Every structure is written in structure tokens, then in C-alpha cells.
Fold this protein.
Amino acid sequence: MKKILSAVLALLIAAGFLVSCNSVQSGQDAQIERLDMEVLAANIDAVAGYDLSQNKVFGAAYYVYQDGVAYEKCFGTTALGGENPITNTSIFRLASMTKPITAVAALILVDRGQLSLSDPISKYIPAFEGINIEDAQGRTTEVVNAPTVWNILTHTSGIGSDEEKSARMTAIEKKTLDNSIMFYVRSGLDFEPGSQQMYSGTGAFDVLAKIIEIVSNKTLAEFLKDEIFDPCGMTDTAFVPSAEQRERMVVMHYRVNGENAEYPIPDGYIFGDFPETHYLGGAGLVSTLSDYAKFALMLLNKGKVGKTVILTEKTFKSLCTAQVDPDIMWGQYRWGLGVRVITDESYPTLPVGSFGWSGAYGTHFWVDPVNKIFAVYMKNSMVDGGAGNESAVKFEQAVYYSFPD
């Protein structure tokens, strides 16, 4: 097996913090392997301790599953110098780890024949009919192919990808889902749909959220609760936390001059400066380690919770299959339908076919169908988030360095 370690992980091993099993599972030789539980615990304990000692978090939570819970442990406190320990019911802001949940919601409607991936957005939101491409300077180009539901899920729609244009959104336009939709209509597309992929932080999934509301005749919050959260037993996942849940929320970590600090977030806001009553389809949910593990377990079980079918096998397969043409998205992974799918065996930890997502505030999860593993990492920080954040990478490495020879 390949032995591929980051400088940080190698340093931890050399210093005696991590236990070496002399192997890392790679896509090239991916087979079902059993984690060494003792090594796994030592490795994750080490990377968690490192993050705490380096002021990268106030606290964090880790969950690894393989034929049952292989590791579940929380570290640190919910606030700077606080007395409340992080637990598996501490409330974290998911940020973009909201997207896979919204994607599953849309695919539920696809399964029921109420929505098609090939449907143009304008079928549900007529204001998108005849929309043009518009650059940041206001120059317009006629669209050849109307953006579709599939384009939204694969970040190929051209909606909300241009950060310069998105930065012009006013507080009024951020206040509600409907207002944000009209902002993106007025802003035009950022590129010809399907011609390239460019990540859309909130815009495209806001449009998807509105489509779900129109088709289901429910708010996005109601639909997610009825169709995903209740069946999965996710009692602490929501757009608007209750008063009791707010007491369990983790304070946002920040760092000033290398020292820990708290980043102030006003009451009534979950993601950025979007009010929590704006149900952001791409970033607005809060959840817990325990709850998100239930969602990930459903995905590991191919869209099922016990005998309850959330997604049919065919639709589930489309979710976790790379969709974007390698000509416009190359590298070690490509987008599926609302998830990142590992497509190249050169990826240093996860085997080909693994899928998952990350959030801007540091949350991270993946599902590894090859080794029957899923893992969830929870933290909330303004200094090390998004795809490839150091804490998440070290977590992946700690897990996949725990396979015996």
C-alpha cells in the first residue's frame, strides 16, 4: 500500500503522537479493510490534541463508523475559556454541509416523478426564462442552453458563482429566499450553463431550495423535516434553532495574533449576514455530531434508514457518481449531485468512489463505500474552513493511517 503523509501528520508520527500501521489505504489498492481500533483512537486523539494546542479550535467532535461506531469522541469546550464541554449534542453551524441535505431533498422529488434533473429552472421559476449571461461590468451575452436542475446540483449553472457580482447583494435581498432569487435573476448568469464548473456558495442552491418549495408546496424547512430529518431521527438539525438548542450552540472560533478569540455573530444569523429565517439551501442549517452521523449512515446504506427508503438505488447512485465532464473539471475529484466524488487513485487517503462535503466553518464528512466507512468532523472556526481545511485533512489521514498491513 502507498504510504502518503502530510508534513503535519508525518511530524506527529515522528514525535510519537501518532501510531503507525505502515499503511495508508489508497484508491489503487482499495479493498475492504478493517480499521485497527486502538491505532485509530490514538491517531485521532493526537490530531485533536494538536489542533487544541495550536489554537486552531476551542473544541471539536469526531465520529468514525465501520460496522458500528469505531470512534466517537469530543474535545475542548463550546467557547473560549468556557466550562461547557463539546458533546455529541453540541450545535454546530453546518455552512455548506447543508448542500448534500438539500440535494437529497431534490432527489426525493426526482424519485417521485415530480422533478426531473433535465428540467429547465424556468419551468418552476418563470423569471429565469430568457436569462442572459452578464459579467461584472454589465456586458451581456445570450444564453444557448437554459440552466437546468442538473446544472444547479453540479455547480455548472452559472448562478451565483461570480463573487464580485454576489458581493453586491443588499441586506434586503438577503432577507428572504424570494428576494435572493430575484437578485440572481437580475444579475444574470456568470457563464454559459454546462460550459464550465464554478462553485456557487449560496446562489444556485437558493434557486434549488425555491424549486423544492414550489414542487412540494412546503417550506424547505418543512420538507427537510418531514422527508429527511424525521425518518433519520435527526432531532437537532434545523434552520432556526430553538431556545434550548441555542444554549448548546458552539461559539465561532477566531484567532488574533496567533491566539484564540471569539468571532461575534449577531443573534438571528447562522451563516454570514443572511438572516436565519432565510432558509439558505446551501448553507443555513445547524446540526450536531450525532444528527449528521445519522444522515451519513443513511448515505452509507445507499439511501435507506432501516426499511424506509429515502432514495431509490438508481437515484442514490446518481448522487454519488461523478457527473461533471473531466474536460471542465480535472484532478482528484469531481462533483456528483451535491457531493464531491473521489475519482482518481492519486488522492492520498480516500479510495475512488468515496464522496462527501465540507463547510466554510470547518465541518467535514465523507462516505467510503469501499471500506464501509463514514466519518464526520465538527468544528466552527473562521480561520480554517472549507474544502481541504487542515483539520479535516489530518482527520482523513488519521483514519486511513489506521489500517493494519
